[in-house]
Design a protein that fits this description.
There is one protein chain. The chain is an alpha/beta fold and 269 residues long. It contains 9 helices and 11 strands. The chain folds into 2 domains: 113 residues, Cobalt-precorrin-4 Transmethylase, domain 1 (3-Layer(aba) Sandwich), CATH 3.40.1010.10; 139 residues, Tetrapyrrole methylase, C-terminal domain (Methyltransferase, Cobalt-precorrin-4 Transmethylase, Domain 2), CATH 3.30.950. Helices cover 27% and strands 20% of the residues. Strands 6-7-10-8-9-11 form a 6-stranded mixed beta sheet, covered by helices on one side. A 5-stranded parallel beta sheet has the order 3-2-4-1-5, with helices on both faces.
Length: 269
């Protein structure tokens, strides 16, 4: 039986905290307070160094980041680590890039803590789709252009995915998390499902950070983009007509900002 997850009456022993897309100014106040108070900080690879610097310098830091194709701690081991650290009586913060409940496995860790009887809380963060799209001047919804947004993790995409057709529809924006590594499969699946190769596409690398780069192209060039930018991470794919709005919005937003401070951009025609 799956243990029930409900708000804990007592002070949490573990906080599952969203660190947002990278910019420390996008942290919630609650997240910042948790980071500053943590005795133990268990953090992912995508948590920026600028955010880690906000932690108590005496806090124990434990890196449990995952990267595709490289050795990393299994999720079950991370769950057990949180339980063990909480059992010492110290306040544990599990810090994740974006939001812990959007492709962050926060639900799995919450279930493990609940089963162990450990009081915990979820502290939401700005998920990458929202933070990176805003930083790249791309509205994910827009009247008469995009009525809905679908978030998909690139790690579970394969050519055999039966739901490609369900991802495609008029007036929709699709956002793939970590999709560059599956660029060929995503391009093939969406085009076979009926999406035009001329559909606008943006690749946002290291969104919301000083190293942000935005690549604007079309779905038909996605495989090529995956080859060119292989290994660059984190990368977000935004697919849909809303990408067309970026040029006008970005010009207005950055017109009074020194060019050295604006995101780099590459266009692929």
């Amino acid at each position: 039986m799956i243990p029930a997850i409900r708000p804990m009456a007592q002070r949490p022993a573990v906080s599952l905290v969203g660190a947002g897309p990278g910019d420390p100014e996008l942290l919630t106040i609650k997240a910042l307070k948790a980071i500053e108070r943590a005795d133990v900080l268990v953090y992912d690879r995508l948590v920026s160094e600028a955010i880690l610097k906000l932690a108590n310098p005496d806090a124990v830091r434990i890196h449990v980041g995952k990267r595709c194709g490289e050795p990393s701690m299994k999720q079950e081991a991370i769950n057990q680590l949180l339980i063990e650290q909480a059992g010492t009586g110290q306040y544990v913060v599990r810090l994740k890039g974006g939001d812990p409940l959007i492709f962050g496995r926060g639900g799995e860790e919450g279930l493990a803590l609940a089963a162990a009887g450990i009081p915990f809380e979820f502290v939401p963060g700005i998920t990458a789709a929202i933070g990176c799209a805003a930083s790249a001047s791309i509205p994910l919804t827009h009247r008469e252009m995009s009525r809905s947004v679908t978030l998909v993790t690139g790690h579970v995409v394969s050519g055999a995915l039966p739901a490609w057709a369900q991802l495609i529809g008029a007036g929709q924006t699709i956002v793939f998390y970590m999709g560059l590594e599956q660029a060929r499969e995503i391009q093939s699946g969406l085009t076979l499902g009926g999406l035009s190769t001329d559909t606008p596409l943006a690749v946002v690398i290291k969104g919301s950070t000083p190293d942000e780069v935005v690549h604007v192209s079309t779905l038909g060039k996605l495989t090529k983009l995956g080859q060119i930018f292989k290994g660059q991470s984190p990368a977000l794919l935004v697919i849909g007509d809303v990408v067309r709005l970026r040029e006008t919005l970005n010009q207005s937003l950055t017109s009074d900002v020194d060019s050295m401070d604006t995101p780099k951009e590459v266009f692929f025609g």
